Amino acid sequence: MKLRFIDSSLHGIIDYLAAIALIAGPFLLNLGSSSPMAIWLSEGTGIAVILVSILTNYKFSLFKAIPFSLHLLIDLLAATAFVAIPFLFALTGLDAAYYFVNSAVVYLVVAFTQE
């Protein structure tokens, strides 16, 4: 069984969908009860995902300036930051769970992505 089944094209689609989810998610889930940072960090990350995606060397980018391997490293750093965010900003409840779930999803996407 092949564990790395996400190619760079599918990863690109996932990136843009994730960016939309990161931008819209806090409002759809009514985040921010423990801190407004729960909203703003997600918004900022969504915008950053769009920028990195536009610059990554894969099918759905515009400039192809960032190697895909560096893009995956950035994804891993973002997933690790998502784990730390609830602790750094004293997020609780749904605010914290949102970041823990996002972290798990990003780790899984990277784990299943072919380089």
Structure description:
The structure is a single chain. The protein is an all-alpha fold. It has one domain (8-111). The chain is built from four helices and no strands. It has helices spanning 8-28, 37-55, 68-88, 93-111. The model has no long low-confidence stretch (mean pLDDT 97).
Major pleated sheet:
none
Cα end-to-end separation = 17 Å
Q: Strand fraction band?
A: under 5%
Shape: globular
Average predicted local confidence, pLDDT: 97
Q: Helical amount among residues, as a percent range?
A: 55-70%
- The residue ranges in which pLDDT falls below 50 over 5 or more consecutive positions are none
Q: Can you count the helices?
A: 4
Number of domains: 1
Round the Cα radius of gyration to an integer and report it. 14 Å
Number of strands: 0
